[in-house]
Structure formats: C-alpha cells, structure tokens
C-alpha cells in the first residue's frame, strides 16, 4: 500500500514532530485517520468468525479460509495499478471510490447465504481496501495545515489501533452473529466516506504514472529479490493469521471448552497490539542500530523457529495462544524492516517500488489460506505450520542469494524520512 502521490516536504524534515502536532489537525485529517483505522481493522476482522462461518454455512475450514484468499488476491492485482489510477482521477476520488466499494461489498457479505458468496464479495472488498490504503497517507499529508510529521504520527496511530482492534471487534460482534462484523464494517466505513466527502478538499491532480510502471519495476534485481523474499514470508504470515483459529478452536474443544469468536478475537487482539508496537516503535530502532539486512535475517530465522514451535504445540491451547501473541512481536518487526529495505534498495520512485513489492507480496498471502486447509485435512493439523517454516527458510535463501543486488542498503544503519517510515509501516502492516 503505497502513498504514491505525496512528496517529502520541508516540514517533514525540519523539526521533530510532537504529540501536539499529531493531535492539532484539521478535521479532514481526522476523517481520513478514522477511515484508515476502520480499513486496517478489516484485515483481521474476519479472523475470529472463520470457525463460525464454517459451522453455520456448512463449509469446510478450507472454504472458510478462502475469504482471505479472494481478498488478498484481488488486493495484490490492484496494488500494481493503484498508483496509476490515483494519478488519473486524483487522491480524493480514489479514496472515495475505495471506501464506497468496501461499504457495498461488506454490506452485501452480511446478507450472504453461502460461503462462496462471501468469498466473491470479499474480492470486491479487497479492491476497495487497496484503493483506499494506497492513497491514505498521501491524503493525510496533503490535508495537514502544519508540519507533516504530526499528521504522520496520527496516521501511524490509526494504523496500529486498526490492526489491534480488528480481531477484537470481529470477536465482539461475531459472538452475536457472524454477519455482525460485516455490518459493523459497512457502517463505520460509510461514516468515514461521508466525513471525507464533506471535509476533504479537492487536490491538484498528481503527476501521471504509467499503468505498467509497477510491473516494469520488477525487472530491477534488488526489487525482484525483495519481492521473492516477501512472497515466502507472507505465506507464513497468513498461515499464522488465517489458519490458526481452527487448531486453536480444536485445542480448546479437546480440553472440554469452547474458545468461540470472542476468545479468538481476544487472542488476535493481543497479536495485533504486539504487531503494532514493534512495527511502529521497535523496528525503526533495530534497523538503525544493526542495519536492515541483519534485522531481516535474524527475524526471519526467529519466526521460522516459532512456526516449528506451533507445529509441535498445535494441540496445546496455551501453547498456541502464547506463540500467536509472540508471533505478533516478530511479524511487526519484519513487516516494517522489509518494506524499509524495499525503499532503500533501489533508485525507483518509492510509490512505484512499494506498489510492485506489495502486489507480489500479497500473492504469497493469498496462496497460504488456500494451501493450509487442504494440507491439514490430508495430513495433520500441525503440518501447515511446518510448511510455513520451510517457506521462511526459502525466504532467507532468497535474501542471501540476492544480497549482492542490495548494495545500496549497505551495512550502516539507514535513516528514512518521517513520511517514508510511515509508508513503510503502512505497507508492512497492511498485509
């Protein structure tokens, strides 16, 4: 998700942003931040209700997990073209179209009578989310009246809150009905759409971007290396996110209890809080102190170990809960560090680079839920975690093999400007 139209301004770098800068913003900035919070909530919203959808719509776990696959696949395809689209119609119009699509498809999903209908509607939801998130940061920076660093802090805060609250809201509403989280998302996004429509002024049309710019960017060896690294990593990310509710529910049932949507939502709320904290606060410190490539290699190895732990402990309710939450800490670091590396490794425009990288990366996320369910059914409930560990080994291999193409990253701690760092966090967490 790339904020493709915003360029660094003098105010971005002149002084360090303060909390006062962050919270003294025009109403238009607050409207976008609210909509961004809800948009990021949508990523984890369906996680707690997957077992309920599976049970109540007579669907297999494999079918239920396709809600992630259709969403992420369309998001991936859209990400290759969002920068071009925004350059043609403008940031404000792109935001409004994205929000409108989410409202429509989330509302329709709440009325569905089969899991296949929801799978198809989630695809439209993914298109809307890609259009909105790809331009939200640019819109916030463009709408701020003061130093852009303050607006960026607000954006990062919205992102973190959304990632944490998504599973919790899904659990709370899902305990009423599996339909309720979809209705809640549609209502909240509609409020955000009206607020942006009323409060956000029209902006000058950004510079034209070729519709094939992101696809052509993959010819760059450094970007291609990082995209391949991200494909295998994102497979593991969404194995943890999309598949884990099912072994978690099974482990609870084996103990004679029921986890339910609320319990799953609580676990992934903890996961989201950890992910938000490390992506916003810990990852930037690590990458500056030890460098981006060492941070990536170390974190990938630790996540692989965690996946092996889930393979062995998938029948332990306590073990799964602890490892999921710890996983949030590691995934937050990895998300931000990997996207920062993309921005530093090439001389391509960062909007084009991050669009290309995001498009390829989300394809890995789309594949994981489609593979995990059938694999578990054919073997054992722990096998998808073992496969995820192997894909992380492949991710490390891609990074090591292609490291010669990453000379621009160097060995010294690197420094992104505030806006670039916010974009890195947004692209990383908007998985």
3D structure, described in words:
With about 425 residues, the chain is an all-alpha fold. The chain has one domain: Growth Hormone, Chain: A (Up-down Bundle). About 80% of the residues lie in helices and about 0% in strands. It is globular and about 60 Å long. The longest helix has about 30 residues, at about 260-290. The protein is built from 19 helices and no strands. Mean pLDDT is about 85; it is low at about 1-20 and about 410-415. It holds the Pfam family MFS_1.
Task: Give the termini separation.
Answer: 9 Å
Biggest sheet: strands, sense, closure?
none
Q: Strand content of the residues, in percent?
A: under 5%
How many helix segments? 19
**How many structural domains does the protein architecture include?**
1
Low-confidence stretches: 1-18, 411-415
Average predicted local confidence, pLDDT: 85
Structural class from helices and strands?
mainly alpha
Run of helices and strands: HHHHHHHHHHHHHHHHHHH
CATH superfamily: MFS general substrate transporter like domains
Question: Could you write a compact summary of the structure shown?
Answer:
With 431 residues, this protein is mainly alpha-helical.
């Amino acid at each position: 998700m790339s904020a493709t139209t915003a360029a660094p301004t003098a105010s971005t770098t002149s002084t360090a942003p303060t909390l006062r800068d962050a919270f003294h913003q025009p109403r238009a900035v607050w409207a976008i931040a609210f909509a961004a919070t809800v948009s990021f909530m949508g990523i984890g919203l369906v996680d707690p209700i997957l077992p309920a959808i599976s049970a109540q719509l007579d669907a297999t776990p494999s079918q239920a997990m396709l809600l992630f696959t259709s969403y992420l696949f369309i998001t991936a395809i859209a990400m290759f073209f969002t920068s071009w689209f925004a350059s043609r119609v403008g940031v404000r119009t792109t935001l409004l179209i994205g929000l409108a699509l989410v409202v429509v498809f989330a509302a329709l999903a709440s009325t569905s009578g089969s899991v296949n209908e929801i799978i198809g509607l989630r695809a439209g939801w993914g298109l809307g989310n890609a259009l909105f998130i790809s331009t939200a940061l640019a819109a916030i920076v463009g709408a701020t009246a003061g130093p852009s660093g303050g607006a960026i802090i607000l954006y990062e805060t919205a992102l973190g809150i959304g990632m944490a609250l998504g599973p919790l809201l899904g659990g709370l509403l899902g305990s009423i009905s599996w339909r309720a989280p979809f209705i809640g998302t549609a209502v909240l996004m509609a409020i955000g759409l009206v607020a942006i429509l009323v409060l956000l002024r029209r902006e000058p049309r950004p510079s034209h971007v070729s519709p094939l710019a992101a696809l052509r960017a993959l010819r760059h060896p450094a970007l291609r290396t990082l995209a391949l690294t991200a494909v295998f990593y994102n497979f593991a990310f969404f194995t943890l996110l999309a598949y884990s509710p099912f072994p978690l529910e099974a482990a609870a049932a084996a103990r004679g209890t029921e986890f339910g949507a609320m319990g799953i939502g609580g676990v992934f709320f903890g996961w989201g809080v950890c992910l938000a904290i490390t992506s916003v606060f810990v990852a930037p410190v690590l990458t500056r102190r030890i460098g981006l490539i060492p941070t990536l290699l170390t974190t990938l190895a630790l996540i692989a170990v965690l996946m092996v732990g889930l393979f062995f402990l998938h029948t332990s309710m306590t073990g799964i809960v602890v490892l999921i939450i710890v996983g949030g800490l590691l995934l937050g670091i990895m998300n931000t560090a990997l996207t920062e590396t993309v921005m530093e490794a090439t001389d391509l425009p960062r909007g084009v680079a991050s669009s290309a990288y995001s498009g390829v990366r989300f394809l890995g996320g789309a594949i994981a839920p489609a593979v995990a369910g059938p694999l578990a059914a054919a073997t054992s409930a722990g096998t998808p975690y073992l496969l995820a560990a192997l894909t992380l080994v492949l991710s490390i291999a891609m990074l090591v093999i292609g490291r010669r193409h990453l000379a621009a990253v160097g060995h010294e701690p690197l420094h992104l400007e505030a806006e670039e760092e916010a974009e890195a966090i947004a692209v990383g967490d908007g998985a």
